[in-house]
Design a protein that fits this description.
Distance between the termini: 31 Å
Largest sheet: 2 strands, parallel
Low-confidence stretches: none
Helix content: 40-55%
Order of helices and strands: HHEE
Number of domains: 1
Number of strands: 2
Shape: globular
């Protein structure tokens, strides 16, 4: 779990991503997921290796 927060903080600082989005973006891949469904994919697209899909 600590690695998720370390990655999230690093991407938050480097890529101007909201901290909550960064945590969610790393939480899923840490559990085996590779994509996230969101209304605002802008920030999630800045997380390398994560596929962001827009929901209607």
């Amino acid at each position: 779990m600590a690695h998720v927060f370390k990655q999230a903080i690093a991407v938050y600082v480097e890529n101007d991503i909201k901290i909550a989005d960064a945590v969610m973006g790393y939480w899923g891949p840490g559990k085996g997921g590779s994509e996230v469904f969101t209304f605002d994919e802008k920030y999630f697209k800045r997380i390398e290796g994560l596929k962001a899909r827009r929901t209607a």
